[in-house]
Amino acid sequence: MAETTKDLESEALQLPAEARARLAERLLASLDSETDAQLDAIWLAEAERRLDELESGRAIGVSADEVIADARSKLR
Fold first, then answer.
1. How far, in Å, CA of 53 to CA of 57, rounded?
2. Which H or E element spans position 16?
3. Long-range contacts formed by 46-53: CB under 8 A, 24+ apart
4. Residues in the chain with pLDDT values less than 70
């Protein structure tokens, strides 16, 4: 590890907890930016596929009330 990286790490660890958390969040977000765009595209395609199935009649929607009631009955 380069000395500057070690120095930066040492300084970061001396920050208050809230500042360290904010820094950690920003650093992690910087690693995920490309992945987020890819995931957004995948979820959009999935949402469009599901909408197409509903509109074409290949799938039948179930109300949230029915899903919740079914889940509650299974938990009893």
1. 6
2. none
3. none
4. 1-2, 34
**pLDDT of the residue at 4:** 92
Please give the single-letter amino acid code of residue 74.
K
Return the exposure string of 39-73: e unless at least 16 CB atoms fall within 10 Å of the residue's CB, then b: eeeeeeeeeeeeeeeeeeeeeeeeeeeeeeeeeee
Residue 7 and residue 2: Cα distance in Å, rounded?
Answer: 9
What does the block give as tokens for 4? 């500057």
Between CA 53 and CA 64, with CA 59 as vertex, the angle to 5 degrees is: 110
Domain coordinates of the chain in residue numbers? 3-75
